[in-house]
Amino acid sequence: MNILSFDSRQCERTRRQMDAYLSNELLVETTGEVLKHLENCKACSDELESRTRLREALLRAAAKRLPPEDLRDAIHQRLKEAQRGLPWAFGAPTWTLAFAALALVVIAGAVGQQWLQYQRGRQMVARVLALGVSDHAQCAIKGHNYPEIAQSRDQLRQKLGSQYAGLLPAVEGRLPGFQVLEAHICSVPGSPRKYVHFIARGQGTILSVILTKREGESLPSGRFLATRAPGGVDLYRAQLEGFSVAGFEVPDYFGFVVSGLGQNEMVKLAASLAPAVRNALSGSIGTEKAAAPALLITSVTIGSDPEF
User: Fold this and answer.
1) pLDDT of 197-223, one tens digit each?
2) Is 250 within a domain?
3) Would residue 42 count as lying in a domain?
4) Are residues 135 and 128 in contact, defined by beta-carbon separation less than 8 angstroms?
5) Do the domain assignments include residue 99?
6) Global pTM value
7) Burial of 281 per CB tally in 10 Å (0-12, 13-18, 19+)
């Protein structure tokens, strides 16, 4: 099988942006650039992991820290002093106000935890989907690693090797209006990660179908989903670096469909591909119908704020 390789170096810039990235303060486009560099640079990836561990340790320490024993008395005294100037508080027992204040602290803490969980989930979705966009941009668009005339199926199967050759008919049969030009295995410099890459042309664009090992990671469910494909495969979507990407996970793999078409079109293609890819990987090719049923597509835009 053929293995392609790429490289990019923006370490200084990436490290300056790491704290803003961890705080989710970067624009979507900048986040995509940071994620692409982290995928290709082990040193910066290790640095990010170190900073992430430090932040999580601080959060755990803050969550476990008990309030001082004299907190209630201090709140009681301050409310008592302030009560004289508050008409709405006239006649209300100070212990009631104190416990109301404590309740607000508890509620604020719960909302804060919910916000942190949402931010972590959103960053996880953005980070995973950015893998597919980065692979598509580096290999198919910048690298132009496909022929103008499609290679034969035998050539493509040989490039994919025995492990992935069975994916070819599953992918070809579920890309209406596209012709598969290339299929191969790519590698990522500085990382053990390799990915299966199909490059197709049609509808005025170049489209990639990409599979990469999940390494035990999973995408969050719930409000992050775009929709659910037949057979119960969850689908995710985003717009990153000018490309539309739809992502899904099957046993052991993340899958991506990436192109310059709209997000809804990518989700529809992913909905048809995901069950077929899952079955092909498990050795049961041909058990899924090629056409996907109509989908009700919703969306969470990467970069939007949660509502509570």
Assistant:
1) 999 999 999 999 999 998 888 888 766
2) yes
3) yes
4) no
5) no
6) 0.61
7) buried
